[in-house]
């Protein structure tokens, strides 16, 4: 069963009902005999699979522009202290004491972000980019990310959530995220990242003031400004 999280317009009368966990139901409202087409979404990143069925807005978003569909996903993950994949490479003997059930030591929690895109006529998704936190550059002379004690922090020290794609996603690699200090959930920033340039473009303090619902971007008509101005003059 699909749970509809948002609706996107793909042009020509075609709408897409999006389940951010599963896929997109395409439906042309102008067809005399409409047929529903299903586009499955790429698999979840490993660190997000445990949250399947919960609200997906904190990790995923979809946008459409000029017939191109784009998906963004962020993942928080832990990195092992040691290279576990090479554990047995140079071992000839394993002692009983080495086989005690111990949890591997893991720290340095970070995050990464991935984007996929496709046209509705394709039968595949193409990965556009995947970046880890340390790959995104920050100009600390312009953007001060601190802990309040004068120390500048790396992006890996911030939790990333609620990604929102640009409405011009067909020609724009900008994504907006909410980020907060892992040690203090009350210090939150609205962050703008250019994924193509792998660069933090802008950040601003943001207060959710308690409950926070997902953000829904929208485009305002260029005629709106004039309409509001004329309405103001009449009042």
TrEMBL record:
<feature type="domain" description="DUF1618">
    <location>
        <begin position="17"/>
        <end position="176"/>
    </location>
</feature>
<dbReference type="InterPro" id="IPR011676">
    <property type="entry name" value="DUF1618"/>
</dbReference>
<protein>
    <recommendedName>
        <fullName>DUF1618 domain-containing protein</fullName>
    </recommendedName>
</protein>
<dbReference type="Pfam" id="PF07762">
    <property type="entry name" value="DUF1618"/>
</dbReference>
């Amino acid at each position: 069963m699909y749970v509809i999280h948002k609706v996107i317009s793909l042009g020509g009368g075609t709408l897409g009902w999006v389940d951010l966990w599963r896929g997109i139901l395409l439906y042309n409202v102008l067809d005399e005999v409409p047929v529903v087409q299903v586009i499955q979404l790429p698999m979840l990143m490993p660190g997000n699979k445990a949250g399947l069925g919960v609200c997906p807005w904190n990790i995923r978003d979809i946008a459409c522009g000029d017939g191109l569909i784009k998906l963004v996903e962020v993942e928080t993950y832990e990195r092992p202290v040691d290279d576990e994949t090479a554990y047995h490479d140079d071992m000839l003997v394993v002692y009983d004491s080495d086989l005690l059930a111990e949890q591997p030591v893991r720290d340095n929690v970070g995050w990464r972000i991935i984007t996929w895109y496709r046209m509705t006529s394709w039968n595949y998704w193409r990965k556009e980019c995947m970046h880890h936190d340390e790959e995104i550059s920050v100009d600390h002379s312009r953007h001060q990310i601190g802990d309040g004690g004068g120390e500048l922090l790396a992006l890996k020290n911030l939790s990333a959530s609620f990604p929102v794609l640009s409405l011009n996603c067909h020609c724009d690699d900008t994504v907006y995220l909410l980020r907060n200090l892992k040690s203090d959930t009350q210090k939150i920033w609205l962050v703008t990242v250019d994924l193509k340039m792998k660069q933090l473009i802008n950040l601003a303090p943001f207060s959710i003031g308690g409950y926070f619902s997902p953000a829904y971007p929208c485009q305002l008509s260029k005629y709106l400004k004039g309409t509001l101005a004329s309405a103001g003059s009449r009042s």
